[in-house]
Amino acid sequence: MVENKRQERKVGLWLDHEQVVIVTLTGKTVKTEKLMSGVERHTRLAGGSRAATVYAAQDVASESSHHRRFENQLAAYYRRLIGRLKDADELFVFGPAEAKIELKKALEIQKSFRGKIVAVEPADKMTERQIVAKVRQRFSRTQ
Asked: Is the pTM value of this prediction over 0.90?
């Protein structure tokens, strides 16, 4: 009787707040996927506008509501990513800025991802080929 053993899925993610490049290694097969976050740029608001009359309602842009919307969009982005990663056996997360740390925290909350994160590293902007090479290099060290 032949046993049908599932090949390990090793996934590397280069991400920032705008996009993610997902590289999935299954045996000798490499699959890449690029997704846009849909998160609005987090810009600092410079005040707001005032009403023309003294007693009219003030139309002041609320920095806190803008920030709250940004945080909600980020959370939705990370939830979408986590949904795509559910079949991963090992995860390597890298990229510039804070998105990699935020995703790591979101992953660690999920019991199914505990122990699957092999590394989280800083990385600058990279081409898709550079990302694939970095993911292959990382997982060749862990075999």
From this structure: no
Residue 3 lies in a domain: no
Q: What is the CATH number of the domain that holds 55?
A: 3.30.420.60
Tokens of 41: 């740029």
Total domains in the chain come to: 1
Residues in the chain with pLDDT < 50?
Answer: 59-60
